[in-house]
Amino acid sequence: MTISDAEFRQLREFIHAHTGIALSEHKKALVCSRLSKRLRHHGLPRYSDYYVLLVENDPEGMELMAMINAITTNKTDFFREPHHFRFLAEQVFPAYKQNPHRERPLRMWSAAASTGEEAYSLAMTAREAMPSFNEQDIRILATDIDTDVLSRAASGIYTRAQASQIPEALLRRYFLKGQDGHAGEVMAKPLLKSLVHFHWLNLLEDPWPMQEKFDVIFCRNVLIYFDKPTQQKLFQRLAGVLRKDGYLMLGHSEAMHGWDNIFKPAGYSIYQCRGKKIT
Ligand SMILES: C[S@@+](CC[C@H](N)C(=O)[O-])C[C@H]1O[C@@H](n2cnc3c(N)ncnc32)[C@H](O)[C@@H]1O
């Protein structure tokens, strides 16, 4: 199946409008291959037919969801970019634990959670630093636009290979080994799962439904898929849901420029919210 320039442009605009994902010309082959299974699923010969299906014959948004699930890139790992977790373990959590005026619970958000490795890594790091804290004390919201990855995340089940970045002691403490039909897999223990709440959320949605502010936000390796105006808007909105002195972690290639009045750099791809009112 091939995609014409006109078909690519149509779909590219549609995807951008619904997800914020900006696809340059050289992503044509990628779009073509990721969406080809949707065309086959519906028995459609051309990408223009698929576009018509999305725009005119998808009142419930079911195909939109399937299209989003097919188009997103979900690469992630446990303790990916480990300096963020070290920073939390060595600086943020000890200070939080000792602060008599701390707001409770400690609230964290994994804003593009994919299959959940980032959120569970956050949960393990927090529990290791504050072993007496339970789900009343630590709340981790983990959201993504892709419903497939979210259901895998909520299951808490990973192959041994996927879990290979979890230190052995943590693996023993926080995961069960699969048996019989699940040999070769591990599953997050109920304690770990109780700290993390998975929900569907499109970062473009405005306003976000969260009522309370966060101490820590991980918004990593998702802004790279967005264009500059979308990124700038998100920086501002993320500042709006961070507590004063809260931290925002970005992916290693997502540096923030021009927001010095709202965020101050606190480490490599770590930004601390100054807590100024945003206008
Ligand atoms: C590469 S993964 C990053 C996972 C994790 N944060 C990490 O750094 O390992 C990017 C995730 O962003 C999600 N995503 C893309 N556009 C989104 C949007 N508009 N709203 C919410 N999530 C989105 C994708 O579904 C995907 O799971």
From TrEMBL:
It is an enzyme of class 2 (transferase). S-adenosyl-L-methionine binds at residues 74, 76, 80, 118, 144, 202-203, 220-221. It comes from the Bacteria. InterPro entries: Bact_Chemotaxis_MeTrfase, Chemotaxis_MeTrfase_CheR, CheR_C, CheR_MeTrfase, CheR_N, CheR_N_sf, SAM-dependent_MTases_sf. GO terms for biological process: methylation. Keywords: Methyltransferase, S-adenosyl-L-methionine, Transferase. It catalyses: L-glutamyl-[protein] + S-adenosyl-L-methionine = [protein]-L-glutamate 5-O-methyl ester + S-adenosyl-L-homocysteine. The keyword Transferase applies. GO terms for molecular function: protein-glutamate O-methyltransferase activity. Residues 1-276 form the CheR-type methyltransferase domain. Pfam families: CheR, CheR_N. Methylation of the membrane-bound methyl-accepting chemotaxis proteins (MCP) to form gamma-glutamyl methyl ester residues in MCP. This is Chemotaxis protein methyltransferase. The lineage of its organism: Bacteria, Pseudomonadati, Pseudomonadota, Candidatus Muproteobacteria.
